[in-house]
Each structure stands twice: as C-alpha cells, then as structure tokens.
Amino acid sequence: MKYPFIYQHRHSYSVRRMCRVLSVSPSGYYDWVGRPLSARSQRHQRLTTQIQVLHQASRETYGAPRIHRDLVEAGEVVGKNTVAMLMQRSGIVPKTVRKFRVTTDSRKTQPAPNILQREFSVPAPNRCWVSDMTFIPTREGWLYLTVILDLFSRVVVGWSMDRRMTSTMNIDALRMALSRRGGQAPTLLHSDQGSQYAAADYQAMLKTHNIRCSMSRKGNCWDTQFKMPSNVQSNLTRAGIGEAAFALTCRLDTGVPRVSPGPLPVT
After folding, report:
1. What secondary structure letter does DSSP report for 259?
2. Is 97 a member of any domain?
3. Helix H segments across the chain?
4. What's the whole-model pTM score?
5. Are 169 and 146 in contact (CB under 8 A)?
6. Domain boundary residue among 90, 115, 141?
C-alpha cells in the first residue's frame, strides 16, 4: 500500500522524501513502478473506471450498495466490499441527499375558514390571490419555492425561494406581489393550512393590508395547487432562469436569494 500511495502523490511531493517518511527504499519503489500490473490490479483499475462513470451518472449521489447493484446488472461479478474498498481508495464519496419533506403540516395550525370554496373564476384582477409552497430537487438538496398567483389572469405576481421552509418565504413573496401591483392588495388570499401560512408574522402582514385569509380544508390540496407547481417550475426556465442561471441563483451552499431580483413573467 505504500508504493501506490507514493505513486498517487508523486506530483505533489518528492518521491525520495515520501520514501524516507514511509521507510521504503527509492530503488524498491522504482522497481515496483517498472513492474507490469497484475491481473488483479488491472481488474481493479477497470472496475474503478466503471464506478466513476456510474457515480457521475447518479450526480454523485450513489453509494457502494447502489453502484454494486448497477455493476451486477451490467454483468460484473464483484462483491459489495470490493466496490466499497475501491470507492474509498479513489475518494469517491456520495453526496448527502436530504430526505423528503412534506410542505404542509397542519397539526398545530389554527385554520382560517375556506372562503374561496374552489371558485376559481374571478371577474377582475387583485380580487383573489392563491399561494402554495412546493420544492425543487437540486444537486445540493431541496430548494423550497413559494408562489402567489392572481386567479383572474393566472399570472404569478410574487414568489420567493429559500433553503428552508419558513414563513419568511411567504412574507417575501407577498411583499413582491404587493410591490409589483403598486401596493394594491387583494381582497382575499387563499392557501393551505400549512404552519407557515398560520404563522403570526404572516397573519399580521395580512391584517396590515386588510387581506382576508382563506384556507383549504385539511387534506385537500387541490385548491391551492390548481396546476400551479408544474407550470411555475417549467416557466422558471422559460422566464430566463435556465440551467446555468438557475445553478448560479439557487446554489444552497452560497445562499439562496429569498426574493427574485426581477419580475417573473409567467402567464
């Protein structure tokens, strides 16, 4: 194991210094380098290349068990321990994937009455807005999205993103919506019974702007979703936040801006 270590780091450190630290002779190392690889070493090299390909194809999320399963399905005869050992030697480590989280937790929510009653036909703008929270999977975990939509025009008037699902997202989305509508508040704002919508700071903002709060019945998600999440996620790309810009805007390790720097023209 000492000779492979020296060979792997030969471009970073002096070979003679590493030989001295590891108590091996330089001549022994160079003799090892000149030897042809054994059949076992050649097989390990081939497997390591396959593991790297599978790991990249999984967006660096697969660990040894899944990669072993894919190798077996591809016809390779290899054990889990060998896969794990080769991954460890090559420094192939899966990224941590966050567990799925529900976006509605109404166990401790004091719900508002359902004033909307699924009446989606609105005669004029700013009469009724609906809001929902959803999630977008990224390579660095879940990205949470709050959207406010005007039922009259089906236009997204406000939205907000964050790495955590908090009431601050809803407040920021509402601020954007009010700003884009020139401070004109809707008569009604409908949402589900999620704790973020029942939070005191969000409810206080609704009262400040004389907005009536309406909430869906418990377990009834169709009111607020109303084809919104799929449309919004696809239109985020059409609105100019393509894969490159989306990666820059939504990187969780560098911080996610809660409010968009510009309008989101979703129709």
Report:
1. B
2. no
3. 2-8, 15-21, 26-34, 39-57, 64-73, 80-90, 167-180, 195-198, 200-208, 222-225, 228-238, 243-249
4. 0.47
5. yes
6. 90
Which residue type sits at 124? A
**Dist. CA 11–CA 121, nearest whole Å:** 69
pLDDT score, position 218: 62
CATH of the domain at 185: 3.30.420.10
Give Rg (Cα) of the chain. Answer: 28
- Tell me: the pLDDT tens digits for 239-264? 333 333 333 333 333 333 333 334 44
φ, ψ (nearest 5 deg) of residue 250:
-110, 20
- The single residue listed with the structure tokens 């999320």 is 61
Instruction: Determine the residue type at 69.
Output: R
8 A C-beta contact, residue 187 and residue 211: yes
**Of 174, 190, 176, 182, the residue nearest 129 (C-alpha):** 190
Amino acid at 111: P
Asked whether 148 and 232 are in contact (CB, 8 A), the reply is no
Tokens at 69, concatenated? 């399963």
The encoded tokens of residue 36 equal 């042809």
Place 145 in a pLDDT band, splitting at 50, 70 and 90. Answer: confident
All residues at 6 or more sequence positions from 225 whose CB lies less than 8 Å from its CB, including other chains: 132
Query: Are residues 167 and 217 located together in one domain of the fold?
Result: yes
Tell me how far apart the alpha carbons of residues 224 and 222 are, in angstroms, rounded to a whole number.
Answer: 6
